Amino acid sequence: MAYSFTQTTARVLARLARYQPVRSGLQKLAVAYRQQQAMSTASPNHDIAEVLPIDPRPAVAQGGTRLNLMVPAVSQRHVFGGIETALQVFDALRPYFDQARIIVTDEATPEPRSDAYYGAWPIVPMASESPPCDHIVAAGSRWGQTLAVHAQDHFMATAWWTAHNAFALLNWQRAQVPEASARRLLYLIQDYEPGFYPWSSRYLLAQATYEQPGRTIALMNSHWLADYLAAQGYAFPVKEVLQPRLHPALAAARARCETFAKERILLVYGRPGTERNAFSLIVASLRLWARHYPQARQWRILSAGEAFAPIDLGSGCTLHSVGKLSIEAYADLLCRTAVGFSLMVSPHPSYPPLEMAAFGARVVVNRFANKDLSGVSPLLVSASPPNPEGFSAALRTLTQAFDHGETSCMPANASEMVWQGGFLDSCGPGFAWAADVAAKLLGDAPAIPATV
Fold first, then answer.
1. Which residue in 17, 44, 256, 305 is a FRET match for 135, CA 20 to 30 A apart?
2. Is the confidence at residue 76, as pLDDT, over 90?
3. What CA–CA distance (Å, rounded) separates 322 from 104?
């Protein structure tokens, strides 16, 4: 019945369309409809979601000194090297304050791992008053809500958009509390973050967070990054340069490993969703290596980092993702990996290639500006030129050397490692600067831990 009605309607419209006035009217309606559809589908959203303001309100209860870590996420699936380092730095600093609070800027329902030091902290909505204990504020869905801030709140920023909002919170706090007029932001800078974007609004906003040096205590993660920032013209009068260090759990696993029992495993650090890790270039290089190295199919080619479907590399080779591993599983894989491949298109050294080399693998990496990891250890090989031909040639050299038993440059165990710098000194004073930084943040008050 409905089909018959549709057919009849179509025939009537076809006959009416023979008349010029009707045809013109239908054509105008069609043009108007297409224009309306184009406007509705192409209407852009000009908001920059990351910098949605975190609006403050005076806290009902005024407490003691409180250190606030502003970090994009704390859920286990999001805690990679950068966020992990931020949480470690925060943990080193919080004993010098009466309370600690983590403000999660990008997650509405954070799910921290239960065995983390913050794993049992209560998670409260931004609109709620602060409980009288260390806690986490979920600020990822903050529209129409405000954050309780009191006179003794001190802020530590991580990603550039957290610094953007932290400066705004400091501005408000200064207006409310005259004695906070000289208060500075502790800014953990772990990369040159304008480089995450094309020249754009976000590029400028990220740059702007480096341009308030008098209001900043800068913690820069690695001398490579500190030197790069200086070369770009950024000078921070109050700063501390951190040196990357092997994760304590990995260091413990490495210490337990009597020998590095290497297998034909080629491990890459694969993050398809992060452009600076150059995943497409990694895949192109692996395909060229597989095509030109006859023994390539004898190797297991694995990727740690983000999960993705298997990728056919040709010549009987496949790149398989193991995703984000537990520390224990990752350490086991590192012990068995013979060759690594990890790229980072930025002045930050990146932890995975250092971790692979720390467990005795020979690792192909890239240079960037003033950064050249080959000076850290002979196990780290900077390929040139940084294209598929250069990287595949380096991979061919390392895999062929392993297949031919040429392992003289590969340490049999941790004690034979040749290494420049403090990355392996996990038992050393990695956070010896904490007391000094806490004193500066507190306004040169005595840096005495607030808790025993």
1. 305
2. no
3. 27
Helix 434-441 × helix 81-93 angle, to 10°: 80
What pLDDT score does 70 carry? Answer: 97
Please state, as a whole number, how many other Cβ atoms lie within 10 Å of the Cβ of residue 326. 11
Task: Tell me phi and psi for residue 133, to 5 degrees.
Answer: -160, 170
- CA distances from residue 80 to 77, 151, 331, 355, 435 in whole angstroms, order as listed: 8, 33, 15, 13, 26
Predicted confidence at residue 367, as pLDDT, reads 97
| pLDDT score of 33 more than 70 | no
The DSSP bridge pattern shows strands 337-341 and 317-323 to be unpaired
Query: Where does the chain hold its CATH 3.40.50.11090 domain(s)?
Result: 63-242
Which three-class secondary structure string do you get for 61-102? CCCCCEEEEEECCCCHHHCCHHHHHHHHHHHHHHHHCCEEEE
3-state SS of 215-276?
HEEEEEECHHHHHHHHHCCCCCCCEEEECCCCCHHHHHHHHHCCCCCCEEEEEEEECCCCHH
End-to-end alpha-carbon separation of the chain, Å?
83
Architecture per CATH, 63-242: 3-Layer(aba) Sandwich (3.40)
How far is it, in rounded angstroms, from Cα 360 to Cα 414?
Answer: 8
Residue of 350, 345, 324, 344 lying closest to 423 (CA atoms): 350
Give the model's pLDDT for residue 32: 65
Q: Which residues contact 152 (CB under 8 A, 6 or more apart)?
A: 62, 63, 64, 65, 66, 98
Tokens 């943040």 label which residue?
A: 441
Beta strand ranges found along 243-384 (DSSP E):
263-270, 300-305, 311-314, 317-323, 337-341, 362-365, 380-382
Classify domain 248-416 by CATH number.
3.40.50.2000
Q: CA geometry: angle at 423 spanning 329 and 412, to 5°? A: 60
Strand partners, 381: 364
- Judged by DSSP in three states, 157 sits in strand
Claim: this prediction has a pTM higher than 0.70: yes
Q: Are strands 317-323 and 239-242 parallel, antiparallel or unpaired?
A: unpaired
pLDDT tens column, 256-295:
887 888 999 999 999 999 999 999 999 999 999 999 999 9
Residue 452: predicted pLDDT: 34
CB atoms within 10 A of CB 151: 17
* Region 192-206 average pLDDT: 96
Domain boundaries for CATH 3.40.50.2000 within the chain:
248-416
- Tokens (6 digits) for 406: 């040429």
Decide if 218 contacts 240 (C-beta within 8 A): yes
Q: Percent of the chain beyond pLDDT 70? A: 86
